[in-house]
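We emphasize that the prediction below concerns an isolated chain of 470 residues; any contacts that depend on oligomerization or on bound cofactors are therefore not represented. The input was used exactly as deposited, without trimming of termini.
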Amino acid sequence: IRDRIRTYPSLYNFLKNTKHQNKSNSNLASSTNKLYVDGRGDTSLFNDGFHSDFFWHLNSDFERSKILYTHHNNQEKEYFSRKGLFSIGQGIHLKGNYLKNFNKPKLNYSHEFKAECINIQSILDEYDLERSNNASFFDAYNVKVFLTWFKYDSKHIAIADAIKDNGGISAIWQMAFDGFPNIECITNSDIVFSYSKFSCDIDKNLKSKIKYNVVVGYPKDYVPALLKDKANLIRSKLQSNGAKKIVFVIDENSIDDDRWHTGHEMQRENYSYILEKLLEVPWLGVIFKPKWASNLRHRLGDTNNLLDKALKTGRCHIFEDSGRYSTSAPPILAGLVADICIHGHLNSGTAALECALEGLPTLLIDREVTRYSKLYDLSEGKVIFPDWPSTIDALMDHFNSPSGTEGFGDWSSIIDELDPYRDGMAAYRMGTYLKWLVDGFDNGLERDEVMANAAKMFRERWGYDMVITT
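Result of the prediction step, given as a token string:
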């Protein structure tokens, strides 16, 4: 492994200079079978409805002592220690006497395609290194289940192979709603926790390699019950400043280079149009929940002037507290404050779905023209709009009508297909399934039997058709 690492000078130097956990800590961590959480930086262990990488644990009987996590600083390390969760520092954690049990994929080199071969060889080298390092890490800390949300690059494939090298199981939970097959979402995992059979069909169409696709429902559906009181307080505050109707606008983030994501200009529209209307209409209130609040002011540019004016009215609210990477508040908190929710993108509708699952009227603006999405089964002109001006016109007509526009923001025609449960227990189902996996290893079973038993128990409890095998 070290010889291979030497081919990557920066990584080799990093490894030389990294202080690893001492042997006593390693022995402590490996004393029981572990589930390693590859999280999103939401470190809270409070079940308060805000984002947490441990939501499935907080809503089930999964034992905290069997969770392994990576802390990024001493504050996080001390926090986890107080809460009884074992964490390790960042870096490469190799077991000194670990011997890898796989052969590196071989490339049949061709001088005719020299450039292509060099590129492919670098991919194979990266795969070999990723698999070797993770296999050694899993062995050192007795990790038997690897849980992640990130399926958007090839790294998760090497990690899935690495956990299998140790007789363990890879698991991915569906973080985002995919309304259509997207090649970036091809998945390789032993287990995937999906929202619905529709989501499973997306994976099937992509030819993802998944042994067990487990339908658990939308994983954060437990949140609304925890946040209604907080939402009512925010709504009352906006109402006290004159807001009679409140709109929630969903910000999906943006980056400087709009070739790879929605550009800042598109996101500025998500603020400017509704803010101009708020300043024009004295009874209108607006609430924003940016996906990433820490860079909001940079992204908004001159639109900051409108935002500052709106905030001074007392009829505008923004959630700005953040975790390591994203805003701590979930979309549904803002949705519960509002009368209407508006998602400025149809090609990425997770936040909109979160609101619609709670029965909140939710609109979609399809500026990217994503007509092949499942969401186009919804009504155009009542749910789907092509741009902000037409959305605001329809919104004001709805608010100004005594009985509102019939079917405005209504997702009921497809909601059963997007989550067959809607009972607030998705996180419980997921945590319970993970518990069954670790319990199986505790009972000395091999990985295939562990997975088969967990699938059998889930089917008996939630329905045979809720675990799809390939």
